[in-house]
Amino acid sequence: MRGSPLIRALLLLLGLLALSWPLRLLLQREAAQVEAARAPATVLEAAAPSRLPLMLTFSQKALRAEIRYAGKSLWNLDHPGLHEAGELQIPFPKEGVELVVSVEFEGEAQGALRLQLTAPDGNEYDRSLWGASTVEAVIPFP
Amino acid sequence: MKRGLFFSLTLFWSCFATGLAVEPIRVSTFSSVLTELAERVGGPLVAVTGHVAAGADPHEFEPKPSDLKVVSKADLVLLSAKHLEGYVGKLREATEGKARFVEVGAQMPSLWQGGESGRVGEKVEDPHWWNSVGNMRRAVAVVRDALTEARPEQKAAFGVNARAYDMELLELDKWVKSKVAELPRDKRKLVTSHDALQYFAKDYGFTVYPVSGLTSAEQPSSREVADLLKVIKKQRVKAVFAEDTVNPKVLQQMTAETGAVLGGQLWVDGLGTGEAANYPGMFRHNVITVVEALK
């Protein structure tokens, strides 16, 4: 390339300036994204505990029954009656809850347990558990 | 009396000789999970070569000439399928049509995830079906039927082995449900290195936020990382999980920026080592790691 060294240097400088503009825009956008991520986001509030009415109906006599939630025992019944009513004080998030229910029926015959749970919004959920002797199951609501 | 003794000895010898003469079915597998399956269902009636070792990344695996040599003598080739083995053409070529190929994963319903290109609407078949115990139980039946077809006279033996393994898986599924129930549903949010736990998530009510896509080779863009940081904060995710085959660098950055902890290492691409060296052990390890970290 021929021409004065000064003009060549000026052309090179102009070229670099032209390139630096889109590069700057790109870097700014990247920085803004990382900054946005660093900013404290609005966090979801953990669901507060609610009082959830729960009714149990046994098809036959049981020796014991237990309701667990999130690894904790909530309701322990020794020789429960055929109908039991209680209240669970647990959060009921929009995803729902899972109760671990275990029953020990008297004798070897097939038995059933009906669970009727009322959610904080008033919706009622009806679930059943079947089995002989000792039964344990994870029951989802809804 | 003598005649009876002679008959019994002849019968014993013929059974013994037949037993000795029976060549085991030569099985080649391309996933550590399928290796365990073939060994458990086939028992002593199969000789299994697992080409993908426990702890190895199946997304990165390419058969070597020594693998192709073994495959060329196989009676049965078991594949995970769902596009995981891109090299299947080489295997078919090596067997010259003599071996039966069974695409185990093709026998079960697929989940579809966003593609690697990021194009809107593009969906890719998720190959990680073994992260569902239900799918694994289906796979037991598929392998039992494949072995029975190869050796119909051993149908009863394969049936007994398959039932025993299936019962073990049924117990495992019950245990998983009970263990996962220790975690409230609104806390079942998994941030993992790559998108390998969708089948697990579907079965047990989790939502997965993967750092990268379906293969461990994909790298997330800075925008994807930034979006995930927002999700971790917004959803109050307590822990993020590294994987055996993926560099945990990005996850370490996430823990530094969000306050979430590194929840431990998961085996998601196949069997692992130690307590995770067999399928029930691997699954239990993953479930305990996840539940204890997110509690």
Annotated CATH homologous superfamily of the largest domain in chain B: Nitrogenase molybdenum iron protein domain
The helix fraction of chain A, in percent, is: 10-25%
In CATH, what is the class of the largest domain in chain A? Mainly Beta
SSE sequence of chain B, one letter per element:
HEHEHEHEEEHHEHEHEHEH
Fraction of residues in helix of chain B? 40-55%
Overall SS class of chain B: alpha/beta
CATH topology of the largest domain in chain B: Rossmann fold
Low-confidence stretches of chain A: 31-43
Continuous helix count of chain A? 1
> Which structural class should the secondary elements of chain A be placed in?
alpha+beta
Per DSSP, the total helix count of chain B is 10
Describe the largest sheet of chain B.
4 strands, parallel
Tell me, what's the shape of chain A? rod-shaped
Structure description:
- The complex is a heterodimer of chains A (142) and B (295).
- With 142 residues, chain A is an alpha+beta fold.
- Chain A folds into two domains: 1-43; 49-141, Lipoxygenase-1, CATH 2.60.60.
- In chain A, 24% of the residues lie in helices and 49% in strands.
- Chain A contains one helix and eight strands.
- Chain A has one helix at residues 5-38; strands at residues 49-58, 62-69, 72-78, 83-91, 97-105, 110-118, 124-132, 134-141.
- In chain A, the strands form two sheets. Chain A has a four-stranded antiparallel β-sheet with strand order 4-1-6-7, with no helix packed on it. Chain A has a four-stranded antiparallel β-sheet with strand order 3-2-5-8, with no helix packed on it.
- In chain A, a hairpin with a 2-residue loop joins strand 2 (62-69) and strand 3 (72-78).
- The radius of gyration of chain A is 33 Å and the shape is rod-shaped.
- The relative contact order of chain A is 0.16.
- Chain B has 295 residues and is an alpha/beta fold.
- Chain B has two domains: 22-175, Rossmann fold, CATH 3.40.50; 182-294, Rossmann fold (3-Layer(aba) Sandwich).
- Chain B has ten helices and ten strands.
- In chain B, strands 2-1-3-4 form a four-stranded parallel β-sheet, covered by helices on one side.
- In chain B, helix 9 (249-258) links the parallel strand 9 and strand 10.
- The longest helix of chain B is centred in the middle third of the chain and has 26 residues, at 155-180.
- Classes of the chains: A alpha+beta (142), B alpha/beta (295).
